[in-house]
Amino acid sequence: MNEIIDGKKFSQTIRTKVKNYVDVIKERHGVTPGLAVILVGEDPASQVYVRNKGKQTLEVGMNSYEHKLEASTSSDVLLNLIEKLNKDVNVHGVLCQLPLPDHLNEKEVINSIDPKKDVDGFHISNVGLLNTGQKSMIPCTPLGCLLLLKDRLGDLSGKNAVIIGRSNIVGKPMANLLLQENCTVTIAHSRTENIETICAQADIIVAAVGRPEMIKKEWVKPGATVIDVGINRVTKNIDGDEKTTLVGDVCFTDMAGLVAGVTPVPGGVGPMTIACLLANTVTACYRSQDLSDPEFT
Ligand code: NDP
């Protein structure tokens, strides 16, 4: 399929740009961007994410600080650590890996991070700034989707965009970003009626649902561009063997010969998310030195 939007390849372009910005700020200003990642507990998926984040942070020449805390860590201990990291001049980005154990208040923890260091873009100040079109930290996954769309389509102005999913971390910020690009934006969710008809009018579909292969060919207008955020673990019969594999929210095989572009799962939005975390960290570092924002579009 030549319609494939290769997020893995494009994320390398972003990481190369990040590395160049890191080299410049190190050489000219003697500052090394630093990212602190906090992991509470031993959720296996979170451990993999944190490991990958640390590895890629080092690869672009930044400092990586990992803080692994017991699942039973108290709120006070966690908040004290965040306070320490907020004050640490060597740390430009602070991220607390979600989900947190049930006894910790996710909102309180996120809002205790200095908004200037909130490289996940989840702090309520950053949400407000983004919603009102002001300079903010933009959540990594929607930022990654936007960069892929702009790279593929150029100017998005006037396009009809349908986002499926209204979560705070993907759907809502994605809608705001596309509004800022002058798209006409519809957000669909589990209560949306005639969702298939709504999607079939879209020039751009961003699927962030968490339902394996929900979006079939009937949902998609010929020539549309489809960004698949979903990551779903399913069991499939591959060459006679039952195997666990990853699929998106979009039925990928249905898109062949139909769309102008579609992101695969894996290898689409996923790699862009970590690349954008690195981009946000270098941006936070540049802002801490009163320098202009790095450019990633
Ligand atoms: P949430 O579960 O927070 O949100 C899912 C959204 O989908 C909700 O708004 C829900 O509607 C909507 N929804 C559920 N069922 C339907 C349906 N049948 N029809 C229409 N809408 C529906 O998920 P996230 O936003 O956190 O993540 C979405 C997917 O993206 C997941 O698969 C997740 O793993 C993946 N993801 C991938 C990332 C990456 O880096 N590639 C990063 C983040 C997430 P309602 O609000 O009405 O319940």
Write structural notes for this entry.
- The chain has 297 residues and is of the alpha/beta class.
- It folds into 2 domains: 29-117, Leucine Dehydrogenase, chain A, domain 1 (Rossmann fold); 140-271, NAD(P)-binding Rossmann-like Domain (Rossmann fold), CATH 3.40.50.720.
- It has helices at residues 7-29, 44-59, 75-87, 106-111, 124-131, 140-153, 171-180, 195-199, 269-288; strands spanning 34-40, 63-69, 93-96, 160-164, 184-188, 204-207, 225-228, 232-238, 241-247, 261-262.
- The model has no long low-confidence stretch (mean pLDDT 97).
- The structure holds NADPH dihydro-nicotinamide-adenine-dinucleotide phosphate.
